[in-house]
Automatic annotation (TrEMBL):
Family matches, as SUPFAM superfamilies: GIY-YIG endonuclease
The protein's name in its UniProt record: GIY-YIG domain-containing protein
Record's keyword terms, sorted: Mitochondrion
SMART domains assigned to the protein according to its UniProt record, in alphabetical order: GIYc, IENR1
Taxonomic lineage from the root: Eukaryota, Fungi, Dikarya, Basidiomycota, Agaricomycotina
Superkingdom classification of source: Eukaryota
Annotated organism of origin: Schizopora paradoxa
Amino acid sequence: MKQFLRSPFFNHSNKYPILKNIRSNHSKIKTLCREVNPICQMQKRSYSSIREDSKMFTLSDFIKENNLTPVYSYENLDLDITRKQILRETKGLSGIYLILNKVTFDFYVGSASTDRFYARFSNHLIYFRGSKIVKNAVKKYKLSNFAFLILELFPEVVTKENNKKLLDREDFYLKSMLPNYNILTEAGSSFGYKHTELDRIKMKSNYSLERRLQIGNLNKGKSLKPETIEKIRNKALLRDRTNIKLSKEFLLNMKTNSKAITLFNLDKTVFGEYNSICDTAKAINCSTKTIYRALKTDKNLLKRRFIVKHTPPFGK
């Protein structure tokens, strides 16, 4: 048994000569395989959708290929100066935007109501509170490899009444361009599905020429002048100021007609008296809804710490 242990097969000083020969032969086979068939050099499967001509294909090419005439086009999105420019130039505007991956040339199309372009931009690309697909793409390809385009401006201040018109414009782009990063098939809908690649190819082959012409003719001869954009912006800002004024008047009216509130500690001593439910909510850091609910209960118990009641009118 001792002689067997001393044999070269189990002698560590010889570094396993037979295994060494096997490894050596295996290495030679791998080298030969690489020389004969370069595909053997691949160690990983790649599922990237990078387009073959992406090194030559540019943002300008993408715009021309899709027959687009963007109002604004932004690159270098990782720079603070670009973000400030987007915030400044899109202030008070509404319309359709496109987020483009400049590596794969996949893209996302969405709509922004009045003064919400920057919010859409930051939610999707900076804070990742928007599309999960866009979020994952940005994390993989980096923000510097994306572009943000304003495809079309909506000429009116967006309201509940005309919001459908804006969604119709978004829906047109969704169905015409079939953006890879969009899951929903209709604008404003939460009941959609993602097309398979085969479906997308069929749809593009059937409608691409017609739809590209439609997109091209959409704003043909209707390019917005800078002064026109300013008029749209100023109209939106004027509406915002009017709303603020109305809001202040409305709040003042509420305070005039609101009922005073008294908060009691659980031992029935007075904790505080307030002019309104809103003032009470601010004082104890809770929502007005919580106070409303407490007032409707029999015990008027609030946050397990207070008893809340309407203050009786003076003299009663």
